[in-house]
Amino acid sequence: MQRLLPIVVGVLLVIILAGGGYIFFLAPSGAEAEGEAAAAEAAPAKEALPPAPEPGEHGPIYLVESRTVNLADNGGRKYLKVSLALEFNEALPEGGGGHGPGPIAGWRQHIADSIGPQINDVLTMLLSSSTSEELLTTEGKEHLKEAILHDLNHALHADRILHVFFTDFIIQ
Questions:
Q1: pLDDT given at position 46
Q2: What does the pLDDT read at residue 101?
Q3: Using H for helix, E for strand and C for coil, what is the string for 97-111?
Q4: Which residue range forms the structural domain that includes residue 72?
Q5: pTM value?
Q6: pLDDT band at 24 (very low <50, low <70, confident <90, very high)
Q7: How far apart are CA 109 and CA 106, in angstroms?
Q8: Structural domain tally of the chain?
Q9: What's the farthest any 2 CA atoms get from each other in the chain?
Q10: How far is Cα 169 from Cα 141, in angstroms, rounded to an integer?
C-alpha cells in the first residue's frame, strides 16, 4: 500500500495538470465564445439580387476596361484588343439625392468592387484561349459573346447578365 500511494498521487497530479493546461491554453474563454457567437449573428445574409428591370426597359450597363490579350494561335504572335459592355438583369437603385455620385456611378463602383475580379478572370481565360481564326468570323464573335455570357453568369451563380456587347474588337 505504501508503494501504491505515490503512483496514485502522481497519476492524479498528471490528470489535474492536463485538465488545467487544456482550460488555460485550448478552451475558448467566455469573452471569445461570446464574440464568436455575436460575429455569427452579425454576419450578413447572402446579398439579395436587386430587382430586374421592368419589361421593355434595359438594365444598367457596366463598361469593362479595354484589355489586350495574347491569342492562342501557334507562335503566340496574335493579339486581341477588346472593350465590352455588360447589360445587367437588374434595376438601378433609386435615389442619389443630389449628393455624391449618382445611382449609376455608385452602382458601377459596387459592381467593380464586388464582382470585378470574377469578370476579369472569366474574360482573361476566355479571350486568351481563343484563336484569331475563330474570332475573325461573325460566328466566332457571336460564339465568344455566348461563352462570356454563360461563363460570367456561372461564375456569379445567377443570371445577372443579360447581354454582352463588343464596343471595340481589334485583332493584330
A1: 44
A2: 60
A3: CCCCCCHHHHHHHHH
A4: 61-171
A5: 0.65
A6: low
A7: 5
A8: 2
A9: 97
A10: 9
